[in-house]
Amino acid sequence: MKNFKILFRVFAFLVLLSITACTGDVEPIDPYVLNPNVTECPEPTTFTSSDFVETKVTLTWVSEGDLWEVEYGPAGFAHGQGTSVTTAERTFAVDGLVATQEYDFYVRTSCGDVFSDWVGPIGVNDTVIIDPNPNPNPNPQTGTFKADFDGGTFVATTTTAFITGDGIAITGLKANGAGFAILLDGQTTGTYTDNAGIFYNQSANAEFGYSNANADFETNGEVVITEINTTNHTISGTFHFTGIWSEFDAVPAVPNKEFTNGTFTVPYTSTNPNPGSDTFFAKVDGTEFSESQIDVGFVSASGVPDYISIVGTKPSGDNLGLRVNDGLAPGTYTITGPLTDDVVGAHLLQDDVLYQATSGTVTITQMTATHVTGTFSVTMKNFEGTVTRQVTEGAFSVDY
């Protein structure tokens, strides 16, 4: 049961909290594989390049899909005469360049036998930024979080960590919403195997992702906490695991994915970063849900409205959460069902069982650019629809 709890707590931590990440909406399975009748392939957008850092330039873009082709060469080169590289990441570092040379870069989406049009060129001039320290220490304010998979390296742009009496929680997220969550049943340095939950999501609002737990909740891989620096308040470690698609009965089956060379050094906190500023109350089946922590996040994702995530968590890991669209006018909004309503929603994780709202209302009494206050009453059911939970007297007032 411990692994079961870890898996769903990590899922909730990454997918439902999405801590202040700006996210992108990425399909978990390539739609062009599942539907061969699809002939259009989306072009990348927001294609940009960094200046030179010694001999390296970093390219970034926004796009749906799983694979992209980058072609580059001296300024003015013709397609087919440059250097072509295929990548599964939306951030790609081109190294080995001549810092005094001007270059053009193109990118297109690869959808199996179909390609989008090329986007570009974008150029980089001969302005050179010399890195005075090629191996700098991690910035204690932002942290570092990396992992290798699909022939590339994931590098997080946002990191968080909590060390509490309930365990260790660590996240590394990219600006497009992809990210890892690690949850450990322990508070010290050492090696964690069957008491470690690891989850990778391709999008902060995706329903499924890769976990180190199988359908029987048996885990693989390991997380090694190498240092907890109580002076700098950072936690460091390594990890690796075989990722198993969390939709166990997917058709066609999604192959496992190997995640290797995971490393992190992340600032941690052991208390609510905004003690006393947020309030959250509710009763579940008539009993007060006595949370010890309130987490509030703002999620911005393409294809869906921006929303605020509010989650109260008990020391046991049970949690109760709400999703409220950003910018709602004061009024009462109806929950129509699990994962079907774009305005408000709710979930409950209790005693290792995940419940989602099937009906209910959320009333917004105040909404500003940084604060939301309201009440809620929700009926929830488990995935099978066999157990019902009533959430009543809900109230919240939080900054985001």
Task: Describe the model.
By secondary structure, this protein is mainly β. The chain is built from two helices and 31 strands. Strands 11, 12, 13, 14, 15, 16, 17, 18, 19, 20 and 21 form an eleven-stranded antiparallel beta sheet that branches. Strands 22, 23, 24, 25, 26, 27, 28, 29, 30 and 31 form a ten-stranded antiparallel beta sheet that branches. A hairpin with a 2-residue loop joins strand 28 and strand 29. The longest helix is centred in the N-terminal third of the chain and has 16 residues. InterPro entries: DUF6252, FN3_sf, Ig-like_fold. It comes from Flavobacterium magnum. Pfam families: DUF6252.
Please provide a brief summary of the model.
It is built from 2 helices and 31 strands.
- The average pLDDT is 77
Question: Per the principal axes of the C-alpha atoms, what is the gross shape?
Answer: globular
Number of helices: 2
Any idea how many domains? 3
| Structural class designation | mainly beta
Tell me how many strands there are: 31
Largest sheet: 11 strands, antiparallel
Radius of gyration: 22 Å
